[in-house]
């Protein structure tokens, strides 16, 4: 049988408000999530027993065994397959690499075996897996288990990761104020128009301050993006360390990315469209 491929896009939290904490320690979120046209690739083929190979430019340090979320997702689905994961996204980076890989694996296995993916309990694989199953602009609530898909939007952006791993639990732990206001009412037309960016600028990522305190280089990334010509809005995604800037068009984003790469050859810099 022929293999089945799935794209695992980078997830970007345009805003991430922490609105409370549950008794089990998980945090309640209100987040606007979009997906990039850069990401990992997952290929699944028929096999009797689970197998996983990790390839690609960002494969170093990614486990190729039962610890990997691709493997866990397939087991959660009750299917044994052979998986090739091609890593392009930095890991532990606030752009949902593991959750997006898990969602792509579920889509590919569902295609291969002709079974729909159960919608219940996906968040137990990873809090970002339910929104990654949607794969385009969505508002995420609860601990990540409540997802409301949004009308299409297209934003021109640059993603930057300075190459430091950030532990999500450590950032949540360092957040002192656990109860913050949710996002303000979104404008009806979120289609990249100026009004949307103004609205977005008034929202926050509540994890940005604790993440910068833990990894000060994130502050340098934010400053470098702020200084890039044409940057309309600069913010960190997820629990970091990846940050993004929004631009009016793709030429500005490409030019900003070239400038950032020239100054910081060791940073991961990707111009992209967010949808
Ligand atoms: O589910 P995921 O593996 O992405 O979460 C990693 C860790 O981040 C959790 O173990 C938890 O400490 C923290 N977390 C949280 N509240 C969320 C999502 C994650 O406290 N809504």
Automatic annotation (TrEMBL):
Q: In which pathway does it act?
A: Isoprenoid biosynthesis; isopentenyl diphosphate biosynthesis via DXP pathway; isopentenyl diphosphate from 1-deoxy-D-xylulose 5-phosphate: step 3/6
Keyword ATP-binding tagged: yes
State the active site: 11, 128
GHMP kinase N-terminal domain mapped to chain residues: 75-146
Keywords associated with the record: ATP-binding, Isoprene biosynthesis, Kinase, Nucleotide-binding, Transferase
Output the SUPFAM superfamilies linked to this UniProt entry. Answer: GHMP Kinase, C-terminal domain (SSF55060), Ribosomal protein S5 domain 2-like (SSF54211)
E.C. no? 2.7.1.148
Q: Which InterPro entries match?
A: GHMP_kinase_C_dom, GHMP_kinase_C_sf, GHMP_kinase_N_dom, IspE, Ribosomal_Su5_D2-typ_SF, Ribsml_uS5_D2-typ_fold_subgr
- Does the entry feature the keyword Transferase, yes or no? yes
Give this protein's Gene Ontology molecular function annotations: 4-(cytidine 5'-diphospho)-2-C-methyl-D-erythritol kinase activity; ATP binding
Ranges of residues in domain GHMP kinase C-terminal: 203-262
Q: Where does ATP bind?
A: 90-100
Swiss-Prot/TrEMBL GO biological process terms: isopentenyl diphosphate biosynthetic process, methylerythritol 4-phosphate pathway; terpenoid biosynthetic process
Q: Which Pfam families match?
A: GHMP_kinases_C, GHMP_kinases_N
What this protein catalyses is: 4-CDP-2-C-methyl-D-erythritol + ATP = 4-CDP-2-C-methyl-D-erythritol 2-phosphate + ADP + H(+)
* Family per record: Belongs to the GHMP kinase family. IspE subfamily.
NCBIfam families this protein is in? ispE, PRK14608.1
Role, per record: Catalyzes the phosphorylation of the position 2 hydroxy group of 4-diphosphocytidyl-2C-methyl-D-erythritol.
**What HAMAP family does the annotation carry?**
IspE (MF_00061)
Q: What is this protein called?
A: 4-diphosphocytidyl-2-C-methyl-D-erythritol kinase
């Amino acid at each position: 049988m022929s293999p089945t491929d799935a794209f695992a896009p980078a997830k970007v939290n345009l805003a991430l408000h922490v609105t409370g904490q549950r008794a089990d320690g998980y945090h309640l979120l209100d987040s606007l999530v979009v997906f990039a046209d850069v990401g990992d690739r997952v290929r699944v083929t028929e096999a009797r027993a689970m197998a996983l190979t990790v390839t690609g430019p960002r494969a170093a340090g990614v486990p190729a065994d039962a610890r990997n979320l691709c493997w866990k997702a397939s087991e959660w689905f009750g299917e044994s397959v052979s998986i090739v994961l091609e890593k392009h996204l930095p890991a532990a980076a606030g752009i949902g690499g593991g959750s997006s890989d898990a969602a792509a694996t579920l889509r590919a296995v569902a295609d291969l075996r002709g079974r729909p993916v159960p919608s219940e309990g996906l968040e137990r694989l990873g809090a970002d897996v339910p929104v990654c199953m949607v794969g385009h602009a969505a508002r995420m609530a609860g601990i990540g288990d409540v997802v409301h898909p949004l009308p299409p939007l297209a934003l021109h952006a640059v993603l930057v990761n300075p190459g430091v791993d950030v532990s999500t639990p450590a950032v949540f732990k360092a957040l002192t104020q656990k109860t913050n206001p949710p996002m303000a009412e979104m404008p009806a037309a979120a289609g990249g128009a100026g009004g949307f960016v103004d609205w977005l600028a008034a929202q926050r990522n509540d994890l940005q301050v604790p993440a910068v305190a833990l990894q000060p280089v994130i502050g340098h990334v934010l400053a470098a993006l702020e200084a890039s010509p044409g940057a309309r809005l600069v913010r960190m995604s997820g629990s970091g360390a990846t940050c993004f800037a929004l631009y009016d068009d793709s030429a500005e984003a490409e030019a900003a990315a070239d400038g950032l790469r020239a100054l910081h050859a060791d940073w991961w810099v990707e111009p992209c469209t967010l949808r």
